Amino acid sequence: MSKHILTRGHSRALTRHHRIAAAGVAALGAAAIGFSAIPSNASTTTTTEAAAPTAKVAYSTEQIKDVRGTVTDQLAGANVKAEQIAAKKQAAAEATAKKQAAVKAAAAKKKAAAKAKAEKSRQAKESASRAAQRAEVKKAAPKSYPNTLDGWIRESLSIMKKHGIPGSYEGIHRNVMRESSGNPRAINLWDINAQNGIPSKGLLQVIPPTFEAYHVPGTPKNIYDPVSNITAACNYAADKYGTMDNVDSAY
């Protein structure tokens, strides 16, 4: 009997706890049944209600697009500004290069002008030097005269001019033709001079003592030399008559 009583008491206690647990389980089960019993249109409603925040997100996306557009504009403006700066730099570089080219061109022109001036000066100096050399050669080289009566008279006049002896071509030629007919080897063997042993000789028939006394330096000491004979005779005539031009007969 006592054993049976203990069993019943224990059963009552478990039953109370079990009821509480069963109530909880029943509530959960009812909820589960309620969820499972929701019609299909409820799912659509839930989806629609969940879509509302998505619409708000779409509005936010438009704002982001605006931000992106602003950034793009800023980048485009920065690019334009960079291009402008690059263009200014390029223009400045071209201007500098142009200026440098102008400076180089001016320097080259100046150098060419200086070179041309130096070349002109050099040519002028060379020309002056050549002229001086020609003058020296002309001065040093004696003038040549033909070996004729005309050449003898002209050469004699040149020597007489240097020594200040007067006389003209006409006066000399006239007296030569009268005295020797232009023969430089002529000799007078019949006049008084010849009789005295000192015959007159040469173009102007000069006696040896007169030739020796009036010989002009720079001419051969040969009484038969045409130039020596003429200059000595003209020197004598200048001393005695003033000039050979004043002689018209034997002298």
Class by alpha and beta content: mainly alpha
The shape is: rod-shaped
Distance from first to last alpha carbon = 223 Å
Query: Level of helix content?
Result: over 70%
Give the H and E element order. HHHHHHH
Q: Describe the largest sheet.
A: none
Mean pLDDT equals 80
Unreliable stretches covering 5 or more consecutive residues: 1-14, 31-60
What is the count of DSSP helices, taking H or I runs of 4+ residues?
7
How many strand elements? 0
Strand residue content: under 5%
**Rg value:** 74 Å
Task: Using brief descriptors, characterize the structure shown.
251 residues; disordered N terminus; Transglycosylase SLT domain-containing protein; 7 helices
Description:
The protein has 251 residues and is mostly helical. Among the domains are: 83-141; 149-246, no CATH class. It is 75% helix and 0% strand. The chain has helices spanning 2-36, 40-140, 149-162, 169-179, 192-195, 208-214, 226-241. Keywords: Membrane, Transmembrane, Transmembrane helix. Residues 114-141 are annotated as: Disordered. Residues 177-246 form the Transglycosylase SLT domain.
Concise structural overview:
This protein has 251 residues and is mainly alpha-helical. Among the domains are: 83-141; 149-246, no CATH class.
